[in-house]
Amino acid sequence: MHGRTATKALAVAVVLTLIGAAPAVAADTSGSASGPVVRSAEAPEPAEAPEPETTPDDTPTPAPDAVATADTDPDVSKGVTHAQNPSVPEGAVWTEHYLPSSVANRNGDPVELHADVLRPAGLPADARTPVILISGPYLSHAGQQADEEKAFTGPSLRHRAFIDDGGLFAAGYTVVFGDLRGFGGSSGCYDFTGPGEQADVRAFVEWAASAPWSTGRVGMYGKSYDAVTGLIGLADRPAGLAAVVAQEPSWNLYDYLYENGIPAENNRTTIDAYNGIAALPGIDHPGTVDGVVVPPDTERYRTNAAYEQTHPECAAGILADTLASDRASSFWSARDTARRAAGSTVPLFLTQGWTERNTRPEGMAEFLDAIEGPVSGWAGPWDHVSGNDVDDEGRLKMGRAGWIDEVRAFFDAHLLGAPAPDPAWALQDNEGRWRLQASWPGVTRELTAPLAPGSYVDTGRGADALQPDEEVDGSFFGTAPRDAQSIGASQTLSTPVDEPTRLSGRASLSLRTQGTGVAHARLWDVDPAGVPTLIVEEAAPVDASGTTRMHLRNVEWTLEPGHALLVTVGTTDSLAWRPSPSEQTVTIESGEVTLPLQATTGDVPTEGQPAPFLSTYLADARWPVPITTTASFTLAEVAPTPAPSASTVPPARLAESGMPSSPGLAVGGAAALLAGALLVAVRRSRAGAALERGTGRGGPRR
């Protein structure tokens, strides 16, 4: 979220909080468009359909002869095609449905959920298909994040590039858009991933799995907030959920609003933005498409959409609730997705930008440590983007082709029964190089080094130091002077490395301190000229006990030969937070940093280009002057263990979409999938002994 570093853009950028960009044109259009793979009502199912926990509405599934044609008025209760409404994807029929949620609204009102269902056109009413569910706050008929003043109503365009280029309807998938409570056509108050939204996700999955046109197998797909709902589903394991694809999620929404109790710069604007999205109306006017009149949203939809506007306690309540800064509070404990996910075996395919300025990788390791199912992922130095997004120059924003193919292969395996590729990670480093490995972070070796003492006055105000109209240069470093001393009161430098040395996972610090204030810790890559580039940072209140512990964010960074690692601690001018400075002296008497190190000798290269955002990050994260600190430790004290070798097979994609359109192609499709299964699945190996978990003044260590 660029509003974290550019104030003038802040008012606009906060509206994009946790919101994915508008659908981009996919550069890779090779997703399978094979014929539908469906099952009749009499055919055996891949899994027993679960008993529903909710009662769906009485809207019938349209039979082929009931679907309106281009010459008739569209009727969403009978089914609407693309010819009648361009918002409907080609090859699909759109209907609306309503179902109850099992958890009442905050005021006791029952919650009615709305779903837009997109079925493959031309199927018999009893043809059963697997379901891909997209559930979140961005699916309103009026627009994803604001009232777009549309000429006519229709299902959301969100993730349309994936739906169209993935050939979902031709392959026999049904797509369901499920509005969370308070959004779109669902009633109730916005709940910020609380028990209400958790119940909504369960209701959508179980309803979709038990529908008469469903095989009973549901996959969830999303980015940002509708990737968070996928993590909720994975944690709660509703009957029928078979796989989750989560792009750039927030792993714990506490970490999105607070850093160890310190408010993030978007702490209030995020909630304001979502309250605005929840207030979006239904479309109350008809439209005309090629001479066919498109009716407005139904009265039922419009009434539900107006719930937040007619219940002002919704917005006031969530604004008040999210003021709780203690991670252990009842409000945030109820939203601890990682805790609920413990032991889940639902397969997960994720993406994560290490350099994200929006949904940063905080809490990712805790979540992955908690679950037991297979995990695949793409991770690298990009911002808040989808796997198939391209920039204005046609470059893939993650730098790697094949996203839609790999997602199709993932869903085909877990929803259609195709051969499953082994879990695998495609990882891009800070030099733009891609490699494959079977798990993340893989095998690492911990190195602990003493920290230099230092003393500073806690004056840092972070984003609050900026004036309302003050311009900044896009960097991470706020308004404080930038010189060899202001980079940090405590500066600890390693000797230059002789061989490429990777940081992979979470570094941690333990500080013995006196005084009251905020400690801002940063790791830097120092080039041979002495100029540092920021790798990762963290802030926490200095603990009154005299010992402050903090885990830095998850990191993936390679130090090239001749480069050194710098650790700094001091007051914060970072624009990521809004701390309340103590104006008192903080003394760091001593401390240690623990680093997860990895060699690069076992790397298995794979195809891919540098993410375009990498050059932007490296420019914004570069401290403008050299440092003068003397080296005091070496990263070679303990030799890093090589990363686990993925394979000696020549580089290739993780998998190819492989559901064939005819029996004659079945062998070829299966072979493509098996050829894509390059990696040997191994259980994630964490750094040496597990990092100690504890609590400090700012909440749990991370």
Taken as a percent bin, the fraction of beta residues is 15-25%
Extended strand count:
30
Radius of gyration: 26 Å
Overall average residue pLDDT: 84
Instruction: Give the termini distance in whole angstroms.
Output: 22 Å
Helix/strand structural class: alpha+beta
Approximately how much helix is present in the residues? 10-25%
Number of domains: 2
Side-by-side strand order of the widest sheet: 1-2-3-5-4-6-7-12-13-14-15-27
Report on the biggest sheet: 12 strands, mixed
The low-confidence parts are 1-71, 639-702
Tally of individual helices: 15
What does this structure look like?
The chain has 702 residues and is α+β, with helices and mostly antiparallel strands. The chain folds into two domains: 20-341, no CATH class; 402-408 and 418-702, Sandwich (Jelly Rolls). 18% of the residues lie in helices and 24% in strands. The chain has 15 helices and 30 strands. The strands form six sheets. The chain has a twelve-stranded mixed β-sheet with strand order 1-2-3-5-4-6-7-12-13-14-15-27, sandwiched between helices. It is globular. The two termini are 22 Å apart. Mean pLDDT is 84; it is low at 1-71 and 639-702.
In short:
By secondary structure, this protein is α+β, with helices and mostly antiparallel strands. The chain is built from 15 helices and 30 strands. Strands 1-2-3-5-4-6-7-12-13-14-15-27 form a 12-stranded mixed sheet, sandwiched between helices.
Give the helix/strand layout:
Elements (H helix, E strand, L loop, with lengths): L9 H4 L66 E2 L10 E9 L11 E9 L8 E8 L23 H6 L8 E6 L15 H16 L3 E10 L1 H12 L4 E7 L5 H5 E2 L2 E2 L5 H10 L8 E3 L2 E3 L4 H7 L1 H4 L2 H9 L8 H4 L3 H5 L6 E6 L10 H7 L4 E6 L22 H14 L8 E4 L5 E4 L7 E6 L3 E4 L32 E5 L6 E5 L2 E7 L3 E9 L5 E10 L5 E5 L3 E5 L4 E7 L14 E15 L4 E2 L7 H8 L10 E3 L29 H14 L18 E2 L2 E2 L2
Parallel strand pairs: 4-5, 4-6, 6-7, 7-12, 12-13, 13-14, 18-28
Antiparallel strand pairs: 1-2, 2-3, 3-5, 8-9, 10-11, 14-15, 15-27, 16-26, 17-26, 18-25, 19-24, 19-26, 20-23, 20-26, 21-22, 21-25, 29-30
Keywords: Hydrolase, Membrane, Signal, Transmembrane, Transmembrane helix
GO molecular function: dipeptidyl-peptidase activity
Pfam family, one: PepX_C
